[in-house]
Amino acid sequence: MQIGVNLSFCVKRWVTPQLWAPIVRETLDLDLVQFSFDLIDPMWPDDLLAELAEELRSTAKQHGLAIHSAFIGLAHYTYNQLLHPNPRVRDAAEAWLRRAYRFARLAGVERVGGPLGAIASRVDGEEAESIAEVDYHDLVARLIRLSAAAKAESLSELYVEPTPLRREWPWTIAQAQRLSADLAGAEVPWKYCLDWGHATFEPLYGRYRAGMSPWFKALGDSVGMAHLQQTDFQFDRHWDFTETGGVDPAAAAAAQREAGLADRPVFLEVFYPFERDDASVLSAMRRSIAQIKPVFA
Amino acid sequence: MQIGVNLSFCVKRWVTPQLWAPIVRETLDLDLVQFSFDLIDPMWPDDLLAELAEELRSTAKQHGLAIHSAFIGLAHYTYNQLLHPNPRVRDAAEAWLRRAYRFARLAGVERVGGPLGAIASRVDGEEAESIAEVDYHDLVARLIRLSAAAKAESLSELYVEPTPLRREWPWTIAQAQRLSADLAGAEVPWKYCLDWGHATFEPLYGRYRAGMSPWFKALGDSVGMAHLQQTDFQFDRHWDFTETGGVDPAAAAAAQREAGLADRPVFLEVFYPFERDDASVLSAMRRSIAQIKPVFA
Q1: pTM score > 0.95 for this model?
Q2: What is the ipTM of this complex?
């Protein structure tokens, strides 16, 4: 299996390719990267983005790194994106993604993905079981349009990352299957990025229904990749593997292989508090990769 | 003392004034708000921002809420802002702030602030004691320019929020004093927003030097407000006061009064995991405000 790293650990630290490329290649001994839009905001000016895309492309090549995909990070996920209650804010999120696709093409990155968005909460704190049908249909129409936009930028694959929130979509396997069916005719295929801290979130799914294997098996060919993290199943922790949690890397690799998904890449995606010192982050990343790489490779 | 709430607890949940205004006014029984740019990105289109600013202004008025200020949130803080290694990215961050000032003016909000930025980390993980002089002088020049931009938008006050990171500025009292002196001639005054989870961060300051009172006393008139949170002093937690930590609200209020800063407002600023359920967030917020309001008011 291909194992790579999402640049989430570099956010606000090793923010240029000249900084993160040697860390990924030499310190972590990896050659597969998932770029994070926490390092570059697609809303920055066009000419700056063009310069940064070229820098990303050439520095990755120089260090022998393949950039598999570019993913939405913490910054953009903070907003409600394509499901904001105001349709004009949804339009702004759609425009953001078009700019993200364009940046990816300029950087030579063929695949883009992330979570789709969240409806608003209610004033009384009650949560509906899922988003309304009218919001779902609007979302599907936007994803179809976005797929055409991705085609125009020569992208090869787009990803939806399911998140464990009733206000987002999809958060159940059935919702994911329905969305896949509704996106079947998209010009650039929409696949899933499944995360070991999302499908396993017990407060939402319950202790006995939480788990990654059912998602792998039910979604099968629709699965494009997995995000790996350590977590306690009580929150979406995005810890590294120096932390104690419920994800056993060997069992995670076995679950993916058993579902017939050994050809889908896996990316470690971990976040550190901004105030944690750099040396301990590098040390923890090195020890995490040393632990999981032999299991997945 | 005036006690209010930063809308950080509303991020990705109660994202429109129609949703958060009744929660602040009725559920929390507060009338003072600090708006968060995690709810509205100043990079959204001009006409949309104008519409959202008008909605913010009129809904706040209708609910009897004063919007004291608008602050940078998690989304923008994720980037390196005014200290990014690439000067053109710094320019983009400066442009972002100009748009934030414009939005504030349109919404009738007179004050804007937040952390300033972070230099990049080194590949070897070593951390310099502080940013380079050349970066500091560039930062000061940008803050002077931004003050002029704020004047053009009729703002009355700007804020720097010190953060406990060597790669940001200022992280020591001496740095903050130097910056205040260098910004003394600014057209709109730059003041400090001090945070109970920043000045108290023991891994950086050491157990016996960490603390808020020295900052209050040394910076005096330069202090514009305080951010309140519960924390364990080991990370910048931004917990609410249903959590167990080291901040005693009564002692916090006393420290601010003793420093002669009883006329500076205090804002509770807490963040919840996106996946936590809405009802428990509302309940925890209500209990937190009930605990701290009598102490500060």
Answers
A1: yes
A2: 0.97
